[in-house]
Amino acid sequence: MDRLLTGLQPSGSLTIGNYSGGIRQVIDYQKTYETFLFVPDMHATTVPQDPEALHKNIKNAVGLYIACGVDVNLDNMHLYIQSENLYHANLSWILECMTPFGELTRMHQFKEKSKNKEGFSSGLVTYPVLMASDILLYDAKYVPTGIDQKQHVELARNLAERFNERYKGDFFQIPEPVIPKIGAKIRDLKDPSKKMSKSAENTKGTIFLLDCEKDIRKKIMGATTDSDGIIKFDEENKPGLSNLLTIYSVFSGMSVEEIVEKFQGGGYGDLKKALADLLCEKIAVIQDNYQKIMASGVIDDALDRGREYTNAIAKEKYELIRKTVGYGRI
Ligand code: TYM
Predict the structure, then answer these.
(1) Cα dihedral sign for 112, 118, 121, 126?
(2) Is the pLDDT of residue 225 over 90?
(3) Which pLDDT does position 118 carry in this prediction?
């Protein structure tokens, strides 16, 4: 079985954007590939985190993965926490030493996250290399993510190729990003020029998977659209409306064309109301599962199994790489 790997930062509560670009793809592929799904808690500390909140967010994130449909009973599903495996950071150091600094400071996400910020951490610059290590340690072939992480997966590809070439061998599998055709960038409901983000200052544009029904309805009904009143998918000229059609498609499984057809001739209000109903219905099921999962021992059992399995794989790979670069004794 080929390997698929992805992670979602526990830097806040997960959003429908994270569902669309990350979790949904894992659920679609979990029976086809050996799946490595982890919580990148070390990534979260590129910006300061409250320790108590971070512990909570880690567990909540795993609870949500399972509540959304990640099947921990599959033998080929491995759920784990990044910081419970020391090899991620160790491999990252080796790869950092092979990455020109300029390659990291030119990355889109770094530029965006460091804009107008003084004193950002070095981790914010080097974090894509840690992400490359997350991927390369396990020889993952497929890495499902939203469009915002594509450049980081490309860095992982480049680093794998660079290492294989320099040390003359097939040390690392070359990973491929897997970006969904629809829903790769769910936009902020208030400012559709931006992606929906769990760390947005204004939460009116973000729907969290743990939002209550009242908030979900309010946020959808208050979403920014345009004034021409025509239901049409046009991301450039109608980003707000196209975003609503995209979210509808992600949560209904219908194609955008079918949705445009369904709401043709109606007003934006009809589409918004139907989308709010749909989201409330789907998210209520997730929240119901979530309550049950959080009250059970499922999460710790899965994480213990995942830690054991993935540490063994990572150790073997790291030992090979460590020796290859010349560390330690012969
Ligand atoms: P993170 O935590 O920002 O996002 C988790 C996943 O959600 C996707 N995503 C979105 N997709 C569509 N629309 C949006 N508005 C949206 N917002 C987020 C992201 O693309 C991602 O798939 N660096 C990663 C975490 C990570 C990782 C990895 C991922 C660490 N190591 C190794 C894959 C492989 C991150 O910060 O994602």
Answers:
(1) positive
(2) yes
(3) 86
* Domains of the chain, start order: 3-179+296-325 (3.40.50.620), 203-291 (1.10.240.10)
Say if pTM beats, i.e. exceeds, 0.90.
yes
Question: Relative to the CA of 196, which ligand 1 atom is closest?
Answer: 15
The region, left, alpha or beta by phi > 0 then psi within -120 to 50, assigned to residue 265 is left
Q: 120-155: b or e for each residue (b if 16 or more CB lie within 10 Å)? A: eeeebbbbbbbbbbbbbbbbbbbbbbbebbbebbbb
Whether 70 and 311 have beta carbons less than 8 Å apart is answered as no
Ligand 1 center from residue 195 Cα (angstroms)? 12
**Which residue do the tokens 């400012």 mark?**
191
The predicted model gives 189-210 an average pLDDT of 94
- The reply to whether 113 belongs to the active site is yes
d(CA 180, CA 185): 9
